[in-house]
Amino acid sequence: MASVQLQSRQAGGLLLGLEYQFKDARLLDAARGPNLASFRLHKWGLRAEWSRLDSRLFPRQGYRLEGGVLAGPKQITAVPDGSPVSTGKSLQLSAEWAAERYWRLAPRTTLVLQTQAAFLQDERLFLPDLYRLGGLQSIRGFREQSLFASRYGLLQAEVRQQFGNSSFLFLFYDQGWLHYRLPDTRYEDWPAGLGSGLSLQTSAGLFSLVYALGRQQHQPLSLRSSQVHFGYTSRF
């Protein structure tokens, strides 16, 4: 998916923006099943963010709220042979919400609570439409983008212990709810992840290392299914 945003910062920590998204999904030659299709999707919408943080890069006190709504037409151009779904048009609507709250518990200890929620509304949803979660930026303890949802909620709790100016160790728990309904599949799950990690500030950027265990349907907590996540954010 390609995305373009135009943003304008307002007084009082408010950020307003316009967004355009484009997705071009194409069937592989061997693709089969009613949950797949080729389509082109264009969506336009609005985004807003309101932030009251003591530091935008390394916050320890305050909150941030963010939300967006997008809508646009989807042109279904091809479906697999034998699929009960036909080509044609549909309208897709999406909405997303996120919030963060930071509390300074001690001079070098911070509690962080984060929540996310999103949904897709489309009478003709396919697997390539869905949100993809899992990994360092969403539900830790799962492979990157290995979880699918048309609607989801996520709550994360994290305790950080700072050392140095902007580096910290942390313990966390992530709890999610995932749901989707496709032409021949309905899915709902409550995946969770827990673990610990390190965020280390260097002269070139922020390096993150996380060890996590994940639990979902048919996968209990187990060291065999543990995940190690790496992340790096460059500093400009």
Q: What does this protein look like?
A:
The protein has 236 residues and is mainly β. The chain folds into two domains: 1-95, no CATH class; 130-236, no CATH class. It is built from no helices and 14 strands. The strands form two sheets. Strands 1, 2, 3, 4, 5, 6, 9, 10, 11, 12, 13 and 14 form a twelve-stranded antiparallel sheet that branches. The mean pLDDT is 92. Pfam families: Omp85 (PF01103). It comes from Cesiribacter andamanensis AMV16. Its main location: membrane.
Q: Bin the strand percentage.
A: over 45%
Which ranges are low-confidence, i.e. pLDDT below 50, for 5 or more consecutive residues? none
Number of continuous helical runs: 0
Largest sheet: 12 strands, antiparallel
Number of DSSP strand runs = 14
**Shape estimate:** globular
Total domain count: 2
Q: Structural class of the secondary structure composition?
A: mainly beta
**Helix and strand string, N-terminal first?**
EEEEEEEEEEEEEE
Helicity, as a percent range: under 10%
Give the termini separation: 25 Å
Produce the secondary structure layout.
Elements: E1 2-9, E2 14-25, E3 38-53, E4 62-78, E5 88-106, E6 109-121, E7 131-133, E8 147-149, E9 151-163, E10 167-182, E11 185-189, E12 192-201, E13 205-215, E14 227-234
Short overview:
This protein has strands at residues 2-9, 14-25, 38-53, 62-78, 88-106, 109-121, 131-133, 147-149, 151-163, 167-182, 185-189, 192-201, 205-215, 227-234. The chain is mainly beta.
Question: Which structural traits does this protein have?
Answer:
65% strand, two-stranded antiparallel ribbon, twelve-stranded antiparallel β-sheet, single chain, mainly beta, 236 residues
